[in-house]
Design a protein that fits this description.
The chain is α+β, with helices and mostly antiparallel strands. It contains 24 helices and 22 strands. The strands form five sheets. The protein has a 14-stranded mixed beta sheet, sandwiched between helices. The protein has a two-stranded antiparallel ribbon with strand order 15-16. The chain has a two-stranded antiparallel ribbon with strand order 17-18. It starts with 12 loop residues before the first helix and ends with a helix.
């Protein structure tokens, strides 16, 4: 049996319908001659308008529809004299022929892309004699043939349409005269042949640039091949399924994709606005996401690219309501309804895109800032995606699992990467925090849109660090200290970390890394019960110990004891507490003057009076011999009231000699410090010891005299 024998003859039902419908068209022209010019103008507008260079798109689209539900291959061949499109799909039927012979009549149903509606008339942009060969019947159009028949019924018509009058063809005869057609008919069920004019040079460019991504939305097309004999070029695009991924392969290039699809039912209001799609109860909607490289801007497709971009990554494909040439989406209820379904499709499938090595990848995919939206459709999609995303799992937590954004805490912005890494490296960290892979500029912006509200903002550094030590362990304290040290080194957040209670102490409390309150263990036993020693489980870690050193935390000693008392303040101090303060100050020695000078200047210090009371320094009476000092400080055994003892003067000279104090307040503090020595001794011995004989030579005696201290 010859390979050409299955092709139907001119007596097939399809060819019979061709003859009948062509005759009916001629009769309608006879009854209404104005239809001739109307139909001719429709064809001219199509050929010269937006469809004027969509021939290859439309041919491939119709071929893919013919293969829907079965599968197979499509082949495009371009020669200097003709353009061919062959496919292995279903042969054309009477309904398909009727759509070709009319305009604005589409047989789209279900998830088909389109079947011989307005788009097929785009072939008139390259030919005046398109021919259709199918195993169910073959037929052709010809401008001269149609014009001759129409002129017989409407003699004065200025122009005649081409695609209203057809004639049956003998496929075997045509194949015998055309080797390319004959070779295609050996395997194809349908072949469209378009004899073309030499000026149609753009077809070579269209063959070269045809988007391979078309097969993502027509996976039943296993192979799409282009042969351009004029340019001696060939392309073959194939599609494979690899588990849940779709792989597009062309030459030696392979791209990986995930495609998510849904069949949506438009709302009543949407159908009222649907135009030619109003009769379709169900519509296909697909979102294709590239898995290779960094996410970038995507496109709106109406089964082929439109001119509308989207800041959502990938391709959003649907039967959008567009202008006549399918380049631009029209604003209205129908497309708005589709955009709502698209937002649901996007948010509902983010979980399938989470990458273990980079969980934040899913946020990269989402639309960008609103002010970056290139058109109304992207703006609306953007708003709907984020509105839905705030209530659905779409942001990875610390374990990389998607959670509802408002249920997650997010760290303060601008943290150094090393701090984020140290935080997330701790195995005991809380999970309900956003993943640190989101701390990239564009990802952070999207994260904040999803996770923050007017009443819920990003965490402070303090809260972020303290969250890490929630399990109460020394290991958690070590991790938090490493984070804080990194923040200090980067100077990214100043000293905000100092308020965070992250240092585990020996009594199992967490305190801020305050060098006046927290100390390393030593032989010195602090007299202040509020002073804390760092837990040995923390100091056993070298990095934690280095961090403590950076924060100024050192081994416990008497000077640190005094600093801690000063830092705690003197509010509601008792006599015993004042006595303890001055005792410790005496132990510190000359350095105590500088430490206490600030408190003295602010009037916070109390001194012991002759009446053995501790009173504010400013409220003590003036000394006769020292007009610069307010009052008489005790103990004053063996001296007349109002004098400053010679022993004290000698001690002041010694202090001034050693620390070169130049401010009267500092000297005053030194007096108090050395008075405390006597107070402490008197308290301990309950006696009146003789004044110490300290009479060192002092080169600054004149200064002391001028200050009233000698």
């Amino acid at each position: 049996m010859s390979p050409l024998e299955p092709w139907a003859s001119r007596e097939s039902p399809v060819c019979e319908y061709i003859r009948e419908q062509s005759q009916r068209c001629l009769e309608s022209y006879r009854a209404d001659p104005g239809l001739v010019e109307e139909h001719a103008n429709i064809e001219r507008a199509t050929a010269q308008g937006g469809y004027g260079r969509r021939q290859i798109y439309e041919l491939v689209q119709n071929a893919a529809d013919a293969m829907f539900g079965s599968g197979g291959r499509i082949e495009i061949v371009l020669t200097p004299s003709a353009l061919y499109c062959a496919n292995e799909g279903s042969a054309i039927d009477v309904e398909g022929v009727d759509a070709i012979l009319r305009s604005h009549v589409s047989r789209k149903r279900g998830c088909e892309i389109g079947r011989f509606g307005m788009g097929f008339k785009s072939v008139l942009g390259v030919t005046t004699s398109p021919q259709f060969f199918s195993r169910s019947g073959s037929f052709g159009f010809d401008a001269e043939f149609a014009g001759r028949l129409i002129s017989q019924v409407v003699p004065n018509a200025p122009r005649a349409p081409v695609l209203r009058i057809a004639k049956p063809l003998l496929p075997q005869v045509e194949a015998g005269n055309d080797g390319v057609l004959g070779s295609l008919m050996m395997w194809a069920t349908t072949v469209v042949r378009l004899p073309i004019e030499p000026e149609c040079i753009w077809l070579t460019e269209d063959v070269r640039n045809f988007p391979s991504e078309f097969l993502l939305f027509a996976p039943h097309v296993h192979s799409l091949k282009f042969i351009d004999q004029s340019a001696d070029a060939e392309r073959e695009i194939r599609v494979f399924n690899e588990k849940e991924e779709i792989h597009l392969v062309e030459q030696n290039r392979r791209s990986r994709w995930r495609v998510f699809s849904a069949v949506v039912r438009p709302s009543i209001n949407a159908r009222r606005d649907a135009g030619e799609l109003a009769d379709r109860d169900e519509l296909p909607l697909s979102w294709a996401v590239p898995l290779d490289g960094r996410p970038s801007r995507g496109k709106f497709w109406a089964f082929f690219p439109t001119e509308y971009q989207t800041t959502l990554s990938g391709i959003l494909n649907a039967p959008w309501k567009t202008n006549e040439d399918r380049w631009n989406l029209l604003k209205g209820e129908f497309n708005s309804d589709l955009l709502s379904h698209a937002a649901e499709l996007v948010i509902g499938n983010l979980g399938a895109l989470v990458q273990n090595e980079d969980p934040g990848f899913v946020v990269d995919i989402l639309p960008a800032r609103l002010d970056e939206s290139p058109n109304w459709a992207d703006t609306e999609l953007n708003q709907k995606v984020y509105a839905l995303g705030r209530t659905r799992p779409c942001v990875p937590d610390q374990a990389g699992r998607l959670e509802t954004p408002t249920q997650l805490s997010i760290p303060p912005a601008g943290l150094p990467a090393e701090a984020l890494a140290a935080w997330s490296a701790y195995s005991g960290r809380p999970q309900a925090w956003s993943h640190n892979s989101l701390e990239q500029r564009t990802r952070r912006t999207r994260l904040e849109r999803l996770a923050t509200t007017p009443v819920k903002q990003a965490a402070t550094v303090q809260k972020w660090l303290e969250a890490l030590v929630a399990d109460g362990s020394a290991a958690a304290s070590v991790a938090a200290l490493k984070c804080a040290a990194t923040i200090l080194e980067s100077q990214s957040h100043g000293f905000s970390f100092r308020a965070a209670s992250i240092v585990l102490t020996a009594n199992s409390q967490f305190l801020p890394p305050d060098p006046n309150r927290v100390f390393l263990a030593s032989e010195y036993a602090p007299s202040n019960a509020e002073l804390a020693i760092v837990h040995d489980g923390v100091t056993a870690d070298a990095d934690a110990l280095a961090a403590l050193s950076k924060f100024g935390i050192r081994a416990a000693d008497v000077e640190g004891d005094l600093r801690a008392l000063i830092d705690a303040g003197f509010t509601n101090y008792s006599a015993a507490q004042w006595q303890r303060l001055w005792k410790i100050a005496a132990q510190v020695g000359t350095a105590a003057g500088a430490l206490l000078s600030g408190a003295a200047q602010r009037g916070e210090l109390c001194v012991r009076t002759i009446a053995s009371e501790f009173r504010p320094l400013g409220g003590v009476c003036r000394s006769e011999t020292s007009p610069h000092l307010s009052g008489r400080v005790g103990p004053d055994q063996g001296r007349s009231k109002g004098e400053v003892g010679e022993d004290q003067t000698a001690e002041i000279r010694e202090v001034k000699k050693e620390i070169a104090m130049k401010h009267v307040t500092v000297l005053l503090v030194a007096v108090l410090v050395f008075n405390s020595v006597a107070v402490a001794q008197a308290t301990q011995t309950q006696e009146h010891p003789k004044p110490p004989k300290l009479r060192p030579k002092c080169k600054s005696a004149a200064l002391a005299k001028n200050l009233g201290l000698s």
